[in-house]
């Protein structure tokens, strides 16, 4: 029933019968009185409206209401409905009078919409007035429905979205978008998104919205930009059109550069950009500058949810390139607030750290204890994010926290999406938690069921296979079904084939064209090390697959004593960006190579690139000598001369400088232009960078060089 409260409002202005909506109300009331039609609720509504709008007294037939047959009443009702649906022509031909009437009609419709107290009330108004609604009325109707639906049961909300009047409202919105102002456009999109309206089902609506946004975005204020992007993210129909996205992101960047956004707006903006998967280096750079300006004043003024949204959104939008100071601030906020934060805020922050390879370090303890205390409140996505972060950093939770977290993970398994289950599986394996009921349940039931249903993408298969390998290396006996394991191994092989190569492909060597550029990108970072080794005349092999096919050696070397050395050229994804600690996947790679019979050492590509070009050959030569790999004397002397000549050219005055020979360099007594073997040994002995110094476990070298044993004979 329509809940109308017009009687408590101020009376309308004079000229009570001039407006078309007033005439329709009066005509309908007269029909109801004369022919005894209309429901009791409609009669009450008409009585209230005629009193509130100061309409003339209603005509009543002399002698009371006539008795009429059911057929006559039905015919009269149909005639009355038809008369009500067609608006009479405006009095007079004056355009100004007609415009005034239209404005008053729009005002009355909006007032009636605002007086609605439930979704059905709004739908009733739409049924009566849809053909007479202005853009302002459309925005008001969407806003009122959105506000009322928040408090309504889910069934009422679903019924409202499926009702024919609501479908008519969306079609009207599609027609009116080109004539809406910026304020109306943004409010319409935001309200429709909050409702969960199926905009994609209305032909032409989303393209019309994109066109309107692209046209009006340069005039958007801070609220408009944030609300529009937030609405697109809530709609979940995909990214905005390229023109709309470019206009919105450019406008957002200009507002950020002008420091025109407050903390809440920045948080909403970054969450939306991250959710939509939009990439815009100008916007994210401007956002970081704004957040960290004045000692991070904007960040310090945010609530915990805003801080978490900023960290998560930036990590998504930049592909994991977020300023360390911002992540450290987010971690300190989450760790210091104790139970005053929400689980999703903590887990989104941990996910952002994992995406950016930023080790939480001291924050791990309080955050894991928080998760233990609030384990019952964790959702499937929260649990997947938590164990994803633990696996990424190869960290095992504290003994006191592990049981509650593992029990919650097992409890949530039936509700997990396949990607969440695979992420949990990988995290359990890399974090050393394969000896748990959750890992066994995933191995024996959850993941095989998802695979059999065809729900695992290739990247998800690689994630699951990584978790399986880590579990088997830690001694877990459970195995995935053989046919599933072969399929996961095939996806793993595809990933190995696409990894960066130590030797530049033929396309990169030939150069030229998009293919050569793409091949050169895939070849980094190991190709320069390969070139330096070739220049030094050191025998080596590159991109060598182990005999079991589970890993690839970047650079294979033969060292003294018949040792086979796997020199892995570490890019940016093998070690934590802030602590230098080896990440979980890199530790797994090292274990696989050691099982294959190699002595594993890591060489940072960034360290090599950080050396001046004239010093790189000698730097690598000294590293090889520290490993026990022979370097031809002539090549070593040439590298020393190159380093000395480059240093002399770079020194003030440009004069040549004498230096000792090879023995002096090895002893560390040479000038600062030469890397000493002592420095090289420090690099390889550093537990954050190097592998174990123990003897190799296999019988011979990998990659066909000896008798390395297969880790999984059935793979």
From TrEMBL:
GO molecular function, one term: RNA binding
Top-level lineage group: Eukaryota
Ranges of biased composition (kind: Gly residues): 662-673
GO CC terms: chloroplast; mitochondrial matrix; ribonucleoprotein granule
Chain positions covered by the region annotation Disordered: 647-715
InterPro entries per the UniProt record, alphabetical: FAST_kinase
BP terms from Gene Ontology: chloroplast rRNA processing; mitochondrial RNA processing; regulation of mitochondrial mRNA stability
Transmembrane segments: none
Protein name, entry field: RAP domain-containing protein
Organism encoding this protein: Raphidocelis subcapitata
Lineage: Eukaryota, Viridiplantae, Chlorophyta, core chlorophytes, Chlorophyceae
